[in-house]
## 1
Amino acid sequence: MTSITLQNVVTEFPIYGMQRNLRRNLYWRIFGKEGAHNGRVVVRALDNICLTVRDGDRLGIMGHNGAGKTTILRIFAGIYAPTHGKVDIQGRVSTLLHTAPGLDLDDTGYENILTCGLYLGMSSEEIAAKMKDIEDFVELGDYLALPVRTYSAGMMVRLGFAVATAIDPEILVLDEGLSAGDARFTERASQRIQQLVKRTNILILASHSDALIREMCNRAILLNHGSLVADGTPDEIIAEYRELLKQPQAPTLSAEVIPMIT
Amino acid sequence: MLPPPDYSGAIDDIVAGLRMREIWGRMGWAEAKRRYRRTVIGPFWSSLSMAIFVVSLSIVWSQLWKIDPKEYVPYLTSGLMVWTFFSTCITEGCGVFVASENLIKQLRISYTMLVCILIWRNIIVLLHNFAIYILVVLFAHVPVTWATLLALPALALLCINIIWIAIVLGMFCARYRDIQQIIVSFLQVALFVTPILWSPAQLTGRAVYIVDYNLLYHYIEILREPLMGKAPPLWSWFMVLMSTIVGWGVTLFLYGRFRRRIAYWV
């Protein structure tokens, strides 16, 4: 049974740069300058999220910039382990967060399809079997034999999208990537997701686009400053999101002392 | 205080990484080629620069120390070949996770797989350098014996050690970026302190301790000796085996605790 359960998930990013340095760390340890200096500044990206995504859910994630959308996608994909709380992922995950994973600009389109497919967990036989389907979808023709360096941004997105959606994942996690394509691509991408949706058990999609969420999803959540503020049907959440956008948003930082090596 | 352990997760990661042969096999090749892209002789540049080094050094040092070049050249070549492989793996191991930040933040992947790519890429370079070795074998009539076959288990053992070293260094260099610099300068010195350019037979008295207890020497020795047609001393096998066991023990402890922080560190 495919499912993802988040239990009191907190994700904090320690801000390195000032403290990353071994010298300062040793200095503090040795000379015991604690207190203000030793308190690391952390950004709490997700705050106490409890959520269960079940088989058949097409979950849309909404929220303004910095609300924690990308972070929660990475939690769903198992990329980040939460700082506190528990995550339980049941099922094979495929992700498309920005470009195709492992994309190399000097490799040709075909080589990149293979690389990217392998990283996403397909075998080379599986990829060979899907090649026709990927070629048809990307509509890049002879460009596939050229280095990806020659592609436009939209063409690269198409390539990554085609591979990520060629796989038969149980859970598919998508970030906005879809917006970089042209109108024709957006339409074909949504058709392709519709087909894919029939094959996947769970779809998770972060987007600012009302239309996309309404079309693709049967459930949506709204994040604000890392907290889960609403969970409901896409229409309800879109309305709440509109409401939220009317208020000015200033991101907040929280500073605290973490006594372990983070 | 340390983060809570997740040993089964760490072991899964290591096993999964080693088993993803199709990816690391392909990526190792791709990266080896990428590095020398648009050059005419490709990875043979590495062999060529080693050849130049060996020839120049042999001419000067065999004169300086009054050693027969037919003895010194095979010793220097095989030692340098192994050292280059080992030290490059270690230096690159420091950056193995940081360099793959994009991948680590986009996919749930086995971090050990990244280490396997690194090692495989360097084995490919090592095999290119092997061309020089073959020339040397012909030039100096290095005996090819049954002991030469020991090179294979020795290389395997070396790789098993490089995996744990790269995991540990990769992890902590991601957190503390200074460590890489420490390692680089350490390796620079190690090249001269470890018998690679010179032979341990040239040491006398208490100075032999810097050879006997120099772990790096034994790492090199187990592979260099077979390449010269001799079986490595038991003491070297013993030291390397011990470091494998202790090293992996420490690594499992650290990896179990800090693996899940890597995505935040890179």
Note: Chain A is about 35% helix and 25% strand.
## 2
Amino acid sequence: MVSSPQQSRARLVALPSPTLAQADDATLARAASSGDPRATSVLWDRFSPLVRRMLRRTLGPTAEVEALLQEVFLRALRQLGSLPDSAQLKPFVVAVTVRVLSGELKRNRVRRLLRLGKQWHPGDFGHGDAATRTALSSLYRILDSLDADARLAFTLRHFEGLQITELASAMDASLASAKRRLARANARVQAAVSRDAAFSAYTTAAASLGDGP
Amino acid sequence: MSLGESDSPTLADVEAVVRENVSGHVDGDRHEQGKQQLLAAIRHRRPGVARAARRVLLGAAVLGALAGGGAYVWKQHNSVRLTYDVAGGLLSDSGYVRGSGPSGARLSFSDGSRVDLQDGARARIAAVDAHGARLAIENGHASLNVAHLPRAAWYVDAGPFVIQVTGTQFEVDWSNYDDTLSVDLHEGTLLVSGPPAPTGVLLRAGQRLTAHEGRLSIEALEQAVQVLDAPATLPALEPLPDLEPALGAPAPAEPAADDANAARAPRPEAATAPQRKSSR
């Protein structure tokens, strides 16, 4: 049942279940932190769609997403050993993703200050009709104007549906700070999309089509 | 998608457009490819070592940056052009100098070198760099005291002649009226080139070089020693590195291909080899 190197054999035979895919978070975390490639594989299958989605929705469809996805998993695997048994894996992976995103958003802000930032075009958003792609490019231009914390608060709340307590935990911030960041971001985005002609045209067109394109 | 009640976009519209159009889904091949990439990264990375290696690399990068910065500062320091001022004379923007009084003009350079132009002498500072200068004597008498410094590179142009200097004391007299050059060397060595000696003549301390009407003679400051009638095959001048283009001054003679080695290392004995002794 175990064909991995001898070094990890003793730990592997101690696993309560031979099927890691069904293992609970604590078991999976222990196995992954011990270097079991099967556990890493299960972690990837279980969480990579979530992490990729968070990266894409927060950053937009950039070429860095796949590299950052790898970075999230490498960091998570490195830190799994210190995870308490009672901890759940999903909030842990989300928190690691948020830290990676925070760093990337700050770097992107510096790039934009140096005029090296990405310029969004409708063609960057490969799916959907032209109006949707134009609206998305407008939206990510608006998100680019937010600072890293406000943008993260906004995307985690509105795109990932995190509750404000989950949001605060993932951002390692107090509840009050999380609320302030979210309020700031909401106000900025609301004002900007209301002024944005492309986004307004998109919503008008979608409304006239009933349930949208 | 769900829209707000009015046509004005709402945050619900923003949520919807992203949630409906940006997902984390990829096809199976890409999913598997990412997994294999992660497993390969873990296999090739020993925990702890990678972090230590990163620290070492960071330290090396910091040291490298410091060393690079130091080298840059050192280079900047060493590439600062010499500065100079003129006493007793007039200096135009183009580098033209002439004495304004009977005592002539004195050029003092920041490396300690000095050039004294006698009354009536005219010269032009054709170029200056970190290691020397190129001075064109247009007419008259000049006394030079060039600081003997490593990599010092000074040139004096006098009519069609070029004098290569590396730390020495000498006097140059050039008459553009009858095209006569006279060089009295008090200390060090000089390499003088011109039409009678295209590849250069080495002049030693205590010697006088005179060139007139295609004839070039070298004699002791008190007594004639040698006369040169014909062009000599002597060490060629080395080009002055990194100097700005001379302003109207003739360039040093290019060494012939056969003289390439001589150009790198002037041979003192070469000055006498092709020469004919004179009883003068």
Note: The first helix of chain A runs from residue 9 to 13.
